[in-house]
């Protein structure tokens, strides 16, 4: 404490920090550095690695499979993000009303968030079964011949998007609801006194003051979407005909199925860089649209 | 962190969830519904509309769960009949027996429990100790080191997965519990969360203890920890759920069926029985019960821990 020598203080600090710092070094920071080195190698985990320099990155730039994976990931994000955000916002707005008995709805909407992806993927794969699924049956009742969903290359990604948005609605709802509840009532009252209608209040008070929470949701969801994997592994395994082969799936396949460990590492660094750049861009852009009260 | 935990750079997370030094239990992520908002009482028609929409939404959220349960109790030939029947007839609870007999679901369950409990206990211990150092000790390089902890949150798990696997192979931990647990021993997110909680505790009690000759360890274990139970519970639930639902790392580090956790074992089960949806759904139903029990028992804490961290399944 006050009278302790610097050496003794450092000793105490070391004792408290060692249990977390050691594993962080061994299992996060160390592997991170190693990954950068491995990305410069040609290695199949069996034979001794060979130096390849930036070769893996050069191959990556020209690899049509990787381009396709980036395209599929972007497809996923463009479908999933608006669906989850607008759906979650609608639920949050409804739950923020002055009405009784709404907490049961919050419980229900949040249920899929705590359920593991494997279970959710099973549920949706079965619901969207092309021949015996209940969704296609329901569609026939209104005269629509349902698509082949996850068995059809044109519909496989929309199937994954649908399941993903369904699972994450509750997550978006909870964050936006917290944001809505942080908006002071006085603002609405003052606006009402000034003659602002419901729509004007939503547009000029709710949306701007909800922007910090929206920003948080968008940043987190984007980071997570770039890493989409679990649901795809279970629902489609990347197929049919690679139509849902996303970046992380290719990392895992290259590393653990094709014996291209260096190439997989290079891919993971490109993914990391993309996430970092997009997050930084968003932090810059937030000045344009995020209002801090 | 195989769960893909993401935390925002501080400045934005702070702005959303309150000031840095704020006690975690007071961070405004308490999500209440049905606000007592003054004025603007909605007309009956508009209220009915909102209830109706929420009810319809609830059906969409609940139906997949009910359909899973219903399917798990159907006999084979009932699976593919048109129109599909919601209620199983005849009732086939023996599907659960078949799944339990032919597939080591019990073993998967045990593995998931062992890994989740060990991982949660270790993360709580290591994070609380580090958080104490960052919140209460003065030593050279403290702030820089804290930034290093925070920086690790930015690293996607996919970047470390290959070297981590190689490391586990070298250590002989592939297909072992240590292989599953070790990478989750430390949590920078937990350190951050608990540091916030510790910073908010008053210093008076500790000062009195120090005057009585107590060591830092005594103050940590006897004063700081007992006073921080809400924050520890929030992080504990978070860590448990992240481990329970974790998929990618267990998929990579374990290939022996004896060591598979529930998600990986289930995915494997589906690979075996591609069309036996009743059996697959019985397995899925079994696997979802423990986490739903946790959710029902500690709903507020679960929602808060998810909202705070941005973790999703």
How would you briefly describe this protein structure?
The complex is a heterodimer of chains A (293) and B (313). Helix content of chain A is 73%, strand content 1%.
Description of the structure:
The complex is a heterodimer of chains A (293) and B (313). By secondary structure, chain A is an all-alpha fold. Chain A has a single domain (57-289), classed as MetI-like fold (Orthogonal Bundle), CATH 1.10.3720. Chain A has twelve helices and two strands; from the N terminus they run αββααααααααααα. Chain A has helices at 6-38, 55-62, 64-95, 103-114, 117-127, 134-141, 156-181, 185-193, 198-226, 230-235, 247-256, 261-289, and strands at residues 41-42, 50-51. A two-stranded antiparallel ribbon of chain A has the order 1-2. Chain A is globular and about 75 Å long. Chain A starts with 5 loop residues before the first helix and ends with a helix. Chain B is mostly helical and 313 residues long. Chain B folds into two domains: 10-31 and 104-309, MetI-like (MetI-like fold), CATH 1.10.3720.10; 43-102, no CATH class. In chain B, α4 (105-136) runs antiparallel to α11 (229-245) and α9 (204-211) runs antiparallel to α10. Chains A and B meet through α1, α3, α4, α5 and α7 of A and α1, α2, α4, α5 and α6 of B.
